[in-house]
Amino acid sequence: MPTVNIALIGYKFMGRAHSNAYRQVRHFFPGKLEPRMKVICGRDREAVTAAARKLGWEEVETDWRRAVERKDIDVVDISTPGNLHRPMVLAAAHAGKHVVCEKPLANTLADAYEMLRAVERAGVKHMLMHNYRKIPAVAFARKLVQEGRIGTVYHYRGAYLQSWLLDPKFPLLWRLDRKLAGSGALGDIGSHACDLARCLNSEFESVAGQLTTFIKERAYPEAPRQAKRRGRVTVDDDANFLARFRNGSAGVIESSRLCGGRLNYNMFEMYGSRGSLAFNLERMNELQFFDATEAADRRGYRTISVTQAAHPYVGAWWPPGHIIGYEHTFVHAIADFLSALERDRLPEPNFYDGVRNQAVLDAVERSAQSGRWEKVKCPI
Ligand SMILES: NC(=O)c1ccc[n+]([C@@H]2O[C@H](COP(=O)([O-])OP(=O)(O)OC[C@H]3O[C@@H](n4cnc5c(N)ncnc54)[C@H](O)[C@@H]3O)[C@@H](O)[C@H]2O)c1
Fold first, then answer.
1. Which domains does the chain possess?
2. Is the beta carbon of 330 within 6 A of some atom in ligand 1?
3. Which atom of ligand 1 is nearest to 188's Cα?
4. For residue 299, is pLDDT > 70?
5. CA–CA separation, 308 and 310 (whole Å)
């Protein structure tokens, strides 16, 4: 079977999730191309060697540029902080490699657009890891919307809430530094909420947003050895906004990492002329569907267990009711990516989605500054 050689940059949270996906994908999703876990890249030789052994990679590199430029590499997978996405994508495109990139695509709209142009010029395939689209219940919700089962959409409500920053002692990691992360809750989890809204509902037209940093200073992770022990948080803790969509629906999107009791509460609700849908990642095998066309005396939300062979993706796994989890979303994304390579198609979501998504984040930032509604200005 022809192989496609992968270079993965980053071996922590997403590095582990992507490694698992490359390892698992062909055990459940057969295809003509075999991904080969060729090289994993990190700066610390000892740590990356241990990661390679644990995660199943053949070789290690400590300089990402060397990994990207290797002749035997076909795909570069970027699982590093946001500030590194741009140089890594540009180098990968320049070297003619297909790219899988973590979200958000970039730290600014201008960077995202430059990255899209680079992969277009290079003629390589590109995928953006908005993995939540790949949840069977989410893909099924999209199908119901496309079939007209909820009719004309009036309201879209999305929220992605977590609680890990509630503790004021949580250290000042890269995600709290604008130079590295670009933004806070907005780009980190709000970008997922925007992607789901775009995927399920419509492109955004305009937004009115606010960004708030509640805990303005935090201790550096290496505090005891550092002269300056505390530093400023330069990103938002909370990003929420009202939205007008191009399909005429009205929306509200919230994202925060200071919501006690919400661990990974990525939810959406859609209310249309014929029905409604509701989903929450913490119960990711279920979709709530309300059919407004049924007789009033028997209407009500029903819970669909999205685990049937007829549902998207899930038939490749277990019998009905044998639920799947977070890691499966990445396996589905990589299965779609490999299938796109085989068929010489562009996978979804891709860098076009990345630019459109970044344009929404950009409009929210402008609106938070101006205090006004702002149009989403997308260069594509
Ligand atoms: N799709 C999702 O659901 C999801 C979830 C979490 C994070 N992310 C995204 O994934 C990306 C990485 O986040 P993470 O949570 O895995 O971060 P992390 O801090 O857990 O891991 C970052 C990795 O990047 C590596 N790295 C940093 N600088 C490097 C350099 N110069 N050269 C080589 N490697 C370098 C680190 O060694 C580490 O392995 C971010 O863009 C983030 O937004 C996506």
1. 3-131 (3.40.50.720), 135-324+356-370 (3.30.360.10)
2. no
3. 43
4. yes
5. 5
